[in-house]
Specification:
It is a single chain. The protein has helices at about 25-30, 60-95, 180-195, 210-220, 245-250, 265-270, 285-300, 310-315, 330-340, 365-375, and strands at about 10, 15, 120-125, 140-150, 155-160, 165-170, 175, 205-210, 225-230, 230-235, 255, 260, 320-325, 345-350, 350-355, 360-365, 395. The chain is α+β, with helices and mostly antiparallel strands. The protein has one domain: Aminopeptidase, CATH 3.40.630. The strands form six sheets. A seven-stranded mixed β-sheet has the order 13-8-3-4-5-14-17, with helices on both faces. A two-stranded antiparallel ribbon has the order 1-2. A hairpin with a 3-residue loop joins strand 6 (about 165-170) and strand 7 (about 175). About 30% of the residues are buried.
Length: about 400
């Protein structure tokens, strides 16, 4: 018999069932009574949503992790392959440098990353090739530049030495400084500059650039963009036409002021211009400045991120125009110092133009000592006086202010 107050049965939507009628209040109380210590009578268990499985049963998180690791591994392998290719090219460049040069160089004080160093950049233009007529036996240094690094202050100093500067070449007396390369190769060029600069600016390394090989290199990297400092109409040299009649009508090579994309041959011609028919004050200083612009534009293109992906295939060939004593590790340090440099300062030695024995020279002045102090950071920068084409001085920037 049913207990008092309780019906023997009740009608419910699902049929007849015993028990109390479920009310909303009772359901709320049951949910509040659910505890977190596992299922039990009257407790509601919430199931966690299942992770979506992809191919091979892996989740998105695992796939993303695998892709990241593969990318890191790819760059590591590619970087090692590029390093080995460049290292092979550096070894060949070291072998091209005469062994007699190294004893003439001053030793470094430490890593190039943290210590100043001075690198002699010698440009030669004597090899045979397109546009190099009558230069096959000429061993004169076509451009002479010293690169002095100052990692502590994130600065790079480029010191141009005029080819016609009259100096005392050891064993040969007073001559134009570019003749040292002709008389005794890069070793004598280093010794001559040591006599000129003294112990305050010793030369630690040397890089010799063959401009004819440079032409092939520039073509291999797709050309370069040079910011031409002024409009140029050169004298007539290396005529591009085959007939003499056409060459007589030809006025010369033209370069327009501003950024200009150049092929290897155009860059080579630009670096050889000795006379500007549009500017009577154009001198050997301007020619060296233009050569430096070509070198710097080429180095900028070589150090671009896009070059990284071609290093395993072209790292060796990129160094063919160069002979140097710098190792692969030192070149990497130099690239980092160049990347970190906030200022590029261009300086030049100079003096006055004189003719001695029918030969035109630049006679050095006492102001050259001040220029060396500026390169070393011992004194404030001073631009060369206006109206003096051979005056020494320093400017910040591309070097156009030395005009």
């Amino acid at each position: 018999m049913a207990a008092s107050g309780e019906k023997p049965y009740r009608v419910y939507r699902g049929g007849r069932t015993k028990g109390k009628v479920p009310l909303a209040r009772r359901e709320r109380e049951a949910r509040r009574a659910v505890r977190s210590d596992g299922p039990g009578p009257g407790r509601i268990v919430e199931r966690k949503p299942r992770r979506r499985r992809l191919w091979l049963g892996w989740t998105w998180r695992r796939w993303i992790l695998v892709v990241i690791l593969c990318v890191i591994l790819f760059f590591a392998i590619w970087g090692v392959a590029g390093y080995l290719s460049v290292s092979s090219g550096v070894s060949d460049a070291n072998a091209r440098l005469p062994k007699s040069v190294r004893p003439a160089l001053a030793s470094d004080n430490g890593l190039l990353l943290s210590n100043s160093t001075t690198i002699l950049l010698l440009g030669t233009d004597h090899a045979t090739g397109k546009g190099s007529q009558n230069r096959g036996t000429d061993q004169h240094s076509d451009s002479i530049t010293l690169l002095h690094t100052d990692p502590g202050r994130h600065r790079l100093y480029y010191l141009s030495v005029p080819r016609d500067l009259r100096v005392n070449i050891p064993g040969y007396g007073y001559q134009k400084i570019n003749a040292a390369m002709q008389f005794g190769g890069p070793r004598l060029a280093v010794r001559t500059l040591d006599v000129l600069l003294g112990k305050s600016l010793p030369i630690n390394h040397v890089v010799i650039v063959d401009f004819n090989q440079f032409e092939k290199l520039i073509d291999a990297i797709g050309g370069i963009t040079v910011d031409v400092p002024e409009n140029i109409l050169s004298n007539r040299f290396d005529c591009p036409y085959k007939t003499q009649e056409r060459c007589l009508q030809w006025q010369g090579w033209r370069f327009h002021k501003g950024p200009m994309h150049m092929t290897g041959h155009q860059a080579l011609i630009f670096s050889r211009v000795r006379e500007n028919q549009l500017d009577g004050s154009y001198s050997d200083f301007d020619r060296q400045r233009d050569q430096q612009l070509v070198q710097q534009a080429t180095l900028a293109k070589l150090s671009s991120p896009s070059r990284f992906f071609s290093l395993p295939f072209s790292g060796n060939s990129l160094l063919k125009p160069i002979a140097t004593d710098l190792s692969t590790w030192q070149l990497m340090q130099l690239a980092w110092v160049k990347f970190r440099a906030g200022k590029s300062i261009h300086c030049r030695l100079g003096g006055t133009g004189e003719t001695i024995g029918g030969v035109d020279y630049v006679i050095g002045s006492s102001a050259n000592i001040s220029v060396i102090d500026q390169v070393l950071g011992h004194s404030a920068l001073q631009a060369p006086p206006k109206g003096q084409p051979f005056a020494p001085g320093c400017v910040v920037g591309s070097g156009a202010g030395l005009k």
